[in-house]
User: Fold General transcription factor II-I repeat domain-containing 2-like protein from Labeo rohita.
Amino acid sequence: MSYSKPKRKVDDEHRQFQERWTLQYFFVEFNGNATCLICKEKVAVLKEYNLKRHYSTKHGDQYEKYQEDERKKRATQLQRELTSQQSLFYKAKKDADAAVEASYVVSEMIAKAGKPFTEGQFMKDCMLKVADILCPEKKNMFNNLSLSANTVAERITELSSDIYDQLREKAGVFTAYSVALDESTDKTDNAQLAIFVRGINEKFEVTEELLSLCPMHGRTTAKDIFQQLGDAITRAGLPWDRLVGITTDGAPSMTGKKKRTGGTGAKRVRRGTCRSSSCSALHYTPTGTVQQMLKI
Assistant:
């Protein structure tokens, strides 16, 4: 049986850029690649043969006339030009990133204040007027700020998704958690079910967040409310066997004698499955209030 020698990978060779290549072939190292100072092309493999071939075939006739001090001076000049060009690109990227970050910050403020998404464009117009007076030289930075209604809506959606993903990540390490339910109507007379979660991990770090806000269309019976609760818990990846408490707002559908959400949820709580002492930070109060749970 013939034995084939495994091929050697370039990364395993640990090649390093040699300083002498700058004067010999007008190359410098940038981000792990050899960059030609003359044409700005990159050579991925740091191998002298590759650099020499590039220099000989593309620039040898023109730059071979430079010798010693003149060659060194020319290489220094080309390096300075490359650095200046890279700095320009870096500044442009930095300004663009800052504009995007500012867009997220303003969108978050609009969401927290409950303002319409169209307020973003109004705020941008205000900032442009202020820039005209205080810092005219930086007005272009404010002008690059995107705060249209569609952009603000997208930013808020992305922020919301990121917060929910962070909550799911934290929920994955809960040793125990409890939920609080508050069902009420909004100004359009539609029922809304607010579900809060409070969990604790092995390091006794407590997390309290709004888990979900569910619109209740039609009936708001205990069965309907519990269905929304179950869906919210499933979406968040919370295991039922770590649920140790349910707190309600005292509404009849929550605390009724025959059918109540707290009682239905209590059947899903597997008593005795939580052995951690962190369970003492959470308790079962089916007829309590949301405020009582969040202030435990």
In short: Confidence is low (pLDDT under 50) at residues 270-296. The beta strands are 27-30, 33-36, 42-43, 176-185, 191-200, 206-216, 243-247.
